[in-house]
Write a structure and sequence with these properties.
Two copies of one chain form a homodimer. In chain A, the strands form five sheets. Chain A has a six-stranded mixed β-sheet, with helices on both faces. In chain A, 50% of the residues are buried. Chain A is of the alpha+beta class and 397 residues long. Chain A is elongated, with a radius of gyration of 24 Å. Chain A starts with a strand and ends with a helix. At the A-B interface, strand 9, strand 10, helix 4, helix 5 and helix 7 of A face strand 9, strand 10, helix 4, helix 5 and helix 7 of B.
Chain lengths: 397, 397
């Protein structure tokens, strides 16, 4: 075991490479950092004073994700104590996941040989319910822009000029409005050309997931659902690309009124991407959309702020199947395969730098209150998870 | 002459009612307040140290509008000294025009009898050029709204929910985009029903004005002009209604990026109105537009913040004709009749409270630098203006 310094919190690395060069090598990923515990007064027992009440262990990090790390340690230890470990094992535990893993990419680049493996086992993504062992096999990518529009040279009096020059806020609103059609589809030219469609089998799998449109409605608090026609909410969030305004600013936004015709308007817009969309290509599509639709009464620029491609792991890889079989053995039910709408940088980093997929799973539950007071780990689920990890190891023997 | 206190700066009132009850009564309007003089270092001579250089008198308020007031005093004094004044004369000089005349309306209400008159002569609106004696006969009205839209109950993660709930910023943008059609016409239902169209004679008069589309382009600094199809810039600004976003705010607008799906979006939107549009009816049209077009994935409200109707004065009233003839006598050219795009509250207040039109004229020039350093009054023009006011008085004899 080594503790390896970085510009931020150090990395912890350990390995057991006794299975020999022909055996599979698993890289268990984890993080030891946690979210702040405040507000402290809402905790029934101290966040760093782990306490069992009923079936749960309460404390900061129990679910996200020290408990998950310990499940991995325990599984490997059980296998070591039972005889020869049938796989090579590496552990990489970072300390900056909750702040976006800013030092992960250079660390992977600098330690490619040490970290060489066949797959990453990432137990940081939880379950959809305690009866639903879960494997997350896809994450969406991102392409993030800032669009800046200028109309007149300076703010003008809306009475003296209104109606004879184009208002950049009106125009940017119109342009954004046109970025979706009446079916909720995105109109950037060529936007869907590289979108990998879900086949009937995958859609049937997603339909098994225990998360209904009603759940999305309730969890969002929106008055009604919305989205691309022809898809369920779970498909829209996991398997379809989106375009959202993250911020919009123009003119006078304090309380009261001012009859200004603003000179400028700005919007931050991000697209969530699915395989095989390319973030920089989407940027070009955004620029092309603006070229084709912007009125000459404004000037504009689109800044590409960041981007990362979507990632998808084969659901039928040797490792995904080994984990799926292990989960089914322990739970007695076939696991659900889930697509996650967000992005997890470390997964993409490992794909790009180490060339390996991640098997994303975990034994946290939706009501574990991660990032909140009274975070807990459901111990019976955690023990089943530990057992499943042991089965996975032997499924790869 | 009386100095009459108000909640703000006092009003100055004076009268000469020697012409008797059958003669016309003119109410000369003026204001004695001025804009701040800073930045002081840009003045060639002190702002309150009036200085003649060449044909101009330099100093704060020379053009806006103490010089105009003095032209009126001199004209009346000349007539008084020449013999019997053929009209009754009242003067009302306020001290809060530059801050929107907040105490004018109650003052008029409280002093209706004292201020009773046949017409208000308002020399605060300037000329389009020194060879163009000008009468402004129309001002646009206003109806100002704030639209607040809510999607999800709280800000959401754009990865976890993006694509399955309606983004309120996207939706508000789409709704605003739809408020104009491809011809630059406003799509609020019934918006043009009460718009009084300009006839061919009026449009021909406006076409005489020495302000071209090129002037609007240059003065605005916009890359191109824009507006309602079928109208010139001068017609669009003076004689057609408009709808402008004055402010738009949603989500994260600081530098950098945040993948938030915002819960709320807000826009301040104002319409400039022409006769005979009704500000509160336009509010109802905005509400109806929202009812007809807003997606059920958001809730919304439209707040009516303020409104005032447009005003228009007959170009062929006895008083307008008297002023026009006077200007033509002095300049040797027929005056231009101009529609102003902005709103002047005192004109509407006088129409509503005293029941009188205003004849808006004045002898300030576009390059007088009002509100700026080195404000000046062009003395030859000012002397001609004084002469025109004298002629007007005798034209009403």
């Amino acid at each position: 075991v080594q503790i390896i310094p970085s510009k931020g919190h150090p990395f912890v690395y350990g390995e057991i490479l006794t299975a020999g060069p022909d055996a599979s090598t698993l890289l268990f990923y984890g993080h030891y950092d946690v979210q702040p515990a405040d507000p402290l007064e809402l905790w029934e027992t101290g966040p760093y004073d782990p306490t069992v009440r009923g079936e749960n262990l309460y404390g900061r990090g129990t679910s996200d994700m020290k408990g998950q790390n310990v499940a991995c340690f325990n599984a490997v230890e059980a296998a070591v104590q039972a005889g020869d470990l049938p796989v090579n094992v590496k552990f990489l535990i970072e300390g900056e996941e909750e702040v976006g893993s800013p030092n992960m990419h250079p660390f992977l680049e600098a330690n490619k040989d040490m970290l060489a493996c066949d797959v990453s086992i990432n137990p940081d993504s939880g379950m959809l319910g305690k009866e639903y062992p879960t494997i997350n096999y896809a994450l969406r990518g991102l392409s993030y822009f800032e669009i800046r529009v200028q109309g007149p040279a300076v703010d003008l009096h809306s009475g003296m000029f209104g109606g004879t020059v184009l208002n950049p806020a009106n125009e940017l609103a119109r342009l954004i409005g046109g970025m979706h059609d009446e079916n909720g589809r995105i109109t950037l030219p060529g936007f869907y050309d590289r979108v990998r469609e879900m086949d009937a089998e995958e859609r049937a799998e997603l339909a098994r997931l225990p998360r209904t449109d009603g759940d999305f409605l309730e969890q969002s608090g929106s008055p009604a659902l919305w989205g691309e026609a022809g898809f369920t909410s779970i498909e829209r969030v996991g398997g379809r690309p989106t375009l959202d305004v993250n911020g919009f600013l123009s003119g006078f936004v304090e309380p009261g009124q001012k009859t200004v015709l603003p000179a400028k308007a700005m919007a931050k817009i991000s697209t969530r991407l699915v395989p095989d969309q390319d973030p920089k290509e989407v940027y070009k599509q955004m620029v092309q959309y603006m070229e084709e639709h912007a009125n000459p009464g404004i000037t504009w620029e689109v800044e590409y702020m960041s981007g990362s491609p979507a990632s998808i792991s084969a659901r039928d890889s040797k490792y995904a199947l080994a984990m799926a079989a292990a989960l089914e053995t322990v739970w007695g039910t076939r696991p659900v395969f889930y697509r996650v709408g967000g992005s997890v940088p470390v997964v993409g980093d490992m794909q790009r730098v180490l060339g390996v997929d991640s098997v994303l799973t975990g034994f946290g539950l939706p009501d574990d209150a991660i990032h909140s007071p009274n975070e807990k780990m459901h111990l019976p689920t955690w023990r089943k998870g530990t057992a499943a990890l042991i089965h996975m190891i032997y499924n790869l023997a």
